[in-house]
Amino acid sequence: MKKTVFLVAVIATACVQNLFAQDSTAASGLSGLLTQYYAIKDALVAGKATIASASAAQFVKTLHGLQQGIVPAESKAALLKDAAPVAASSEVGKQREAFAALSTDMIVLAKSARLSSEPVYQQYCPMKKANWLSSDKAIKNPYYGSSMLTCGKVVETFNQ
């Protein structure tokens, strides 16, 4: 009887640890994806097309590297489709256009999954009529860079 109880306890512990490990893997994968997104945003704020392109390529690589099911297939397809033009372009203007769609996809993901243990701020540019995500409340507009750096406002906070 003692051996049976012990065996059941060991199996239950292993199952619970496996569930926690999967949650941890998902959280670290999504956090890495968000970090790459922020790198794209920061490059666009600075007007650095080469860095934005490289960051978008890394974003795509990170997304491909996530275990199946961490990001829903529909979201993954949309993210890949909208990150590709940023990675392929060497023109900041074109990258900023594509970034608007990528940001919309990331906001959808942020509303359905925990991307970070830190707050994630959804910000809005009224001139562009587009949103983006930021790790900081301070507005640094990726759509206009230095010409309208502080144009925008925080519209939602994801305290995950």
Concise structural overview:
The chain has 160 residues and is mainly alpha-helical. Helix content is 62%, strand content 11%.
Task: Give your account of this protein's structure.
With 160 residues, the chain is mainly alpha-helical. The chain has one domain (2-115): Four Helix Bundle (Hemerythrin (Met), subunit A) (Up-down Bundle), CATH 1.20.120. Helix content is 62%, strand content 11%. Strands 2-1-3 form a 3-stranded antiparallel beta sheet. A hairpin with a 4-residue loop joins strand 1 and strand 2. The protein is globular and about 75 Å long. It starts with a helix and ends with a strand. Residues 5-10 and 12-25 have low confidence and may be disordered.
